Amino acid sequence: MITIIILSILLIISLFIVVNLLRKLERIDDEVDEVNLQMLDVLNDLMKMQSKMEEIDTNGMFANDDSTGTIFTQLKDLIDTLNNRYNEEITDE
User: Fold this and answer.
1) pLDDT at position 41, please?
2) Which residues contact 86 (CB under 8 A, 6 or more apart)?
3) Model's pTM, two decimal places?
4) What whole-number distance in Å separates Cα of residue 80 and Cα of residue 83?
5) Cα angle, residue 55 at apex, residues 61 and 73 outer, rounded to 5°
């Protein structure tokens, strides 16, 4: 009889723990989804920025200028790197 009571108490405690962990997991999953959406928004904004930069620099004057061209190239490379990284992560999911 004592064994049944002890096992019942352990079962109730285990159920409480499992339910608590499930709630935490669902909360974390929601936060991960939200962060993924934010990352996609940032990626879309960066892609729009890159196309706008290329649109502004249709003659290649900024890209070919020494001081401005270096920054222009670095920004373009950064956007390409982020684009590739996030696209790989999206395809992996």
Assistant:
1) 87
2) 39, 40, 43
3) 0.58
4) 5
5) 55
